[in-house]
Amino acid sequence: DQQVKQNSPSLSVQEGRISILNCDYTNSMFDYFLWYKKYPAEGPTFLISISSIKDKNEDGRFTVFLNKSAKHLSLHIVPSQPGDSAVYFCAAQSNFGNEKLTFGTGTRLTIIP
Amino acid sequence: DADVTQTPRNRITKTGKRIMLECSQTKGHDRMYWYRQDPGLGLRLIYYSFDVKDINKGEISDGYSVSRQAQAKFSLSLESAIPNQTALYFCATSDGIAQGSYNEQFFGPGTRLTVL
User: Given A15, A21, A41, A82, which residue has the most CB atoms within 10 angstroms?
Assistant: First the structure.
C-alpha cells in the first residue's frame, strides 16, 4: 500500500518557466514532508521540508505548498534552470514511527534549454 | 571526501551467492539506514539502526541482514542472493532529531547490485 504517491513519472519544462511537482499521501498522521533531489550516479540530497502545521515554505527558487485537507503537496521551482534536471522524491515522516521516512516513487524533471 | 561512502559501487553476482554491501560515514551520526530503489517503486527501507546496539527491520527486510560494527559502519548482507534483489542500494545517516523537527537523512552514492 503506497502511502506516498507521485503520479507523474516524468515532467518536461522549458528553462525559465515554473516547474510544479506533485505528491499525494494517505496517512493523516504524517508530521513532516521532505523533498529530495537525485542526480544520476549520486545519492538523493535534501532540498526542502514543510511541517504539517504549515501550508507553505519557501527557500530561494523552491517553494513547497501543503494542502492537508486534500492530502496533497507540491514543489514549485521558479525559474527552472538546466541544473534542476533530476529525479525528485517526496518523503513523509511520522514522529510516531521512529521518524522514519516514507518515500514516493519519484518524478524525473527535465528542463529544456 | 564524501561523508557517506558505500562499497562496492557496482556488483554483479550469481543466484545463491552471499553478498555484503558496506557503508561508512564520517558525519558522526548515530542513525544509519539501508534502502533499495527499484524503478517505479521509489526508495524502500530495508533496515535501520539508531545506535550500535539497536537494529530494526524496515518494510522489506526479508532476505537481508545487517550488522552495525561501529557507530560509523553499517553493513547489509544478502545471505543467498536472488534475481529480484537486483536494485540500487543506498545507505543513509541522520542525527537524532530535535523535538518537533524533521529527520534529514544524508545518503551515500549507492551500490548497483545485479543478481544473475
Answer: A21
Would an 8 Å CB–CB cutoff place A52 in contact with chain B?
A: no
The CA distances from residue B48 to A89, A98, A104, A108, B96, in Å, are 20, 10, 19, 27, 13
Chain A residues in contact with B48 by the CB 8 A cut-off are 98, 100
**Residue appearing with cell numbers 523533498:** A35
Interchain contact A101–B (C-beta under 8 A): yes
| pLDDT tens track, chain B, 116 positions | 669 999 999 999 999 999 999 999 999 999 999 999 998 888 999 999 999 999 999 999 999 999 999 999 999 999 999 999 999 999 999 987 666 678 899 999 999 999 99
